[in-house]
Protein: 1-aminocyclopropane-1-carboxylate deaminase
Amino acid sequence: MQLPSQIHQISYNGISLWIKRDDLIDPFISGNKWRKLKYILQDAASKNKKHLVTFGGAYSNHLLATAAAAAKFQLKATAFVRGEKVNNEMLTLCKIFGLQLHFTDRDSYKNKPALFQKHYGHDDEAYFIDEGGASYEATIGCAEIITELEEHFDHIFCAAGTGTTAAGLLKGINQLDLSTQLHVVPVLKGGDFIREEIAQYEQDLSNLHLHINYHFGGYAKTKTELIHFIRDFSAKTGILIDPIYTGKMFYAIRDLIEKEQIDKDAKILAIHTGGLFGILGKIVEFDKIF
Structure:
């Protein structure tokens, strides 16, 4: 594991910002995935649980990270995959790492604790991990992103799906009594709910700002404008970003600066949360622009 993760300063189309390169932590357990799993794995070990059971979609970076982490620490791992049975590159990687897959209809999938109890309630070694690793333990791991910082930043940006990473970042900011403003970019429609999710873990939301209009149609949805932006950003900076999470976050940063809602001279840190294998699900969209 490459920790603490590096910080790189870049210039993109006249915009200067810093990037916390959590994407470089590990090839497969990268970004916020390791941050979330770190204390979950410690908790599982303390309870002598050797079978990780988790949940995700067919292109879930969390499933891949859990599969790789289980293999690394010699644990068994199983995942309930939302929807009909499919084959894709992401799930193939999961299976190579030894992850067992259960494809589950979408209605049953909604009640994850019930699925766990039905199939593994009898297994004393089974350990429940929520979708995306959402948990209190995950927020503790993500708070360490803040404690690793050796200099002050005016603004910190992160993408959000469940809000767990954002909750951890805010926890770290509040614990150190920083004036840093946390900007969260939900990657799905109706992202206002992220505020409530964060509030489950951290009560003081005074430094929190949500930017809910950068979902590009919803979770795992994209538009040609975003695909072009990702290509331009990656080609000009040498830093690969994805269309599910980080691409939307960096697009939001540029747009907010151009609209003068964020001072271009402020010190801005973007958290690169990894998830680059999400590109595999959007190859067709990228092929269209080449």
